Amino acid sequence: MITAVIFNFTAHTAFANDAKQYDRNLGKQELHIESFYKYLEKQPVKRIKKYDKYMNLAQQYVNERQYDQAIAAYETAIEAESGKPEAYIALADLYVQMEDYESADAVLSSGIDRTESEELIDYLEELQNL
């Protein structure tokens, strides 16, 4: 009985320590993203175009699984340069990863209207055949 109590206490303590470490790591990741965002905002437009800034920022958010922020960053990149199919593809990929096929379809359709990209047309056809 005493061994079971000691084991349960030890397991609980280890779990609590793991949870604290997870929270610290999550906080560090959020600070990393915030500092990266601030860095991008300070870069002159000549050095890094707005499109590139927000594509990079979106990828950072995707890596950190902060999908709402990633979507917003991809949308800003699309607003900056609506003629580049890469942003539409990246955003559609994210929606597919989230299993939001309707939004992926809408993004690709919008991209096709704006770019007439064969790559977007092919991706939309592939998505509709799933």
* H/E topology pattern: HHHHHH
Number of helices, counting only DSSP H or I runs of 4 residues or more: 6
Query: How many angstroms does the end-to-end distance come to?
Result: 56 Å
Compute the average pLDDT.
82
Total strands: the figure is 0
> Stretches where pLDDT falls below 50 for ≥5 residues?
none
Report the β-strand fraction as a percent range. under 5%
Largest sheet: none
Helical fraction: over 70%
> What general outline do the C-alpha atoms trace?
flat
Q: Which structural category fits the helices and strands?
A: mainly alpha
Q: Roughly how many Å is the radius of gyration?
A: 21 Å
Q: What does this protein structure show overall?
A:
This protein has 130 residues and is mainly α. 83% of the residues lie in helices and 0% in strands. It contains six helices and no strands. The longest helix has 41 residues, at 2-42.
